[in-house]
Design goal:
Blueprint: H1 3-11, H2 21-28, H3 32-40, H4 47-60, H5 66-73, E1 78-83, H6 90-104, E2 108-113, H7 118-129, E3 134-138, H8 144-151, E4 156-159, E5 168-172, H9 174-186, E6 191-195, H10 202-217, E7 221-225, H11 232-237, H12 239-244, E8 249-252, H13 255-267, E9 277-279, E10 296-298, H14 301-317, E11 326-328, E12 330-332
Parallel strand pairs: 1-2, 1-3, 3-4, 4-5, 5-11, 6-7, 6-8, 8-9
Antiparallel strand pairs: 10-12
Helix pairs in contact: 2-3, 2-4, 6-14, 9-10
Length: 342
């Protein structure tokens, strides 16, 4: 049979029928209901029987149909994960951590991006809620009331955000900022800038608030400078405002903004760290690649994703979940910090 005949047979529906729990039952000599319990509710049979059923399912190439499983249980086996900006490398490790826990627990993640738009985030979240068991909102740009409304529909957990009555997983930014500003002060810096992120970002507010409080406590002058976007382009565009502010060091909202500013300094002949020290935030992949390598504050990104999914699964199961607990940040010193005037 040539390739055209094979294609015709495939188009005519001559495919092998997918295996069912009845096929597994015949192969193992147990009832279909026993097969169903072994595959959908592990731990309810003795380990030897369950292993034999799972081995048979693997041998036959059986795959659980989440839509079919949803009929008797009301659960789809899927979770929604909605991030504010899919192009932000800070989310790579977070998503991987979330996926790791979901895979270990037999869940599937449906991933979506709101492109920094509250309107798109709201509509996307509402669409996702019709087909998932729960929703993880990461870096949400929605108002508190909107998040609470979404939570009233299906289980919901937020990451990098705090809202009254909503389960949350978030970082403690103070340790990393404290160490960064302490090193800047020891290096002689007394006038610094915070290069801000999106106004709708709760995390941006947290980073600015803690930097401001610590700087004031230590008799350091600090000024907030706006950036047009939390991107390399936003950091580069802010170069003129940073230079006009006459500061000796900059703490940026994230690594992308810091890297954009670093590149623009190089293009304009402004030496880093000789004339300006720069600190990023997140410790994304590639932060150590430019010259000079970027000093930054490391976020526990993978742990945020892992804990977020665990918290969401607990909410879905209706059991008691852990109290909100902040995960500590850590300063990572590289080459973009130096003494004033060197």
């Amino acid at each position: 049979m040539d390739q055209s005949d094979a294609a015709t047979r495939t188009r005519n529906g001559d495919r092998k029928a997918p295996p069912t729990i009845y096929d597994i039952a015949r192969l193992t000599g147990v009832s279909p209901s026993t097969v169903s319990r072994a595959l959908n509710k592990p731990g309810r049979l003795n380990a030897q029987t369950e292993r034999r059923i799972r081995d048979a399912a693997s041998e036959l190439g059986y795959r659980i149909n989440p839509m079919a499983r949803a009929l008797p249980t009301g659960k789809t086996g899927t979770l929604g994960l909605l991030v504010s900006d899919i192009t932000n490398p800070a989310y790579f490790d977070l998503v991987r951590g979330a996926e790791r826990v979901a895979s270990e627990t037999g869940m599937t993640i449906v991933f979506a991006d709101s492109q920094e738009s509250p309107e798109l985030e709201r509509s996307t979240a509402e669409r996702l809620q019709t087909s998932v068991d729960g929703l993880l909102l990461v870096g949400s740009r929605l108002e508190d009331q909107q998040i609470q409304e979404l939570s009233s529909v299906k289980p919901l957990v937020i990451v990098n955000r705090l809202v009254d009555g909503i389960p949350a997983v978030f970082p403690d930014v103070r340790p990393g900022i404290t160490t960064a500003l302490e090193l800047l002060r020891e290096a002689g810096h007394r006038r610094i800038a915070y290069l801000a992120g999106p106004e709708a970002s709760w995390m941006n507010g947290q980073r600015w608030q803690h930097a401001f409080e610590i700087a004031v406590e230590w008799d350091m002058s600090i000024v907030e400078i706006k950036s047009n976007a939390p991107t390399r382009e936003g950091g580069a565009e802010a170069f003129g405002r940073v230079k006009a502010a006459d500061v000796s060091a900059v703490l940026a909202y994230n690594d992308l903004v810091a890297l954009g500013l670093l590149r623009e300094c190089r293009d304009h002949g402004l030496d880093v760290p000789g004339q300006l020290s720069i600190v990023g935030f997140d410790d994304i992949f590639g932060a150590d690649l430019p010259t000079p390598a970027l000093s930054t504050i490391r976020m526990p990104l993978a742990a945020l994703g892992e804990n977020g999914i665990r918290r969401l699964l607990a909410e879905i199961d209706g059991g008691a979940s852990e109290d909100d607990a902040a995960l500590p940040t850590k300063f990572v010193g590289r080459e973009s910090i130096g003494p004033v005037g060197v």
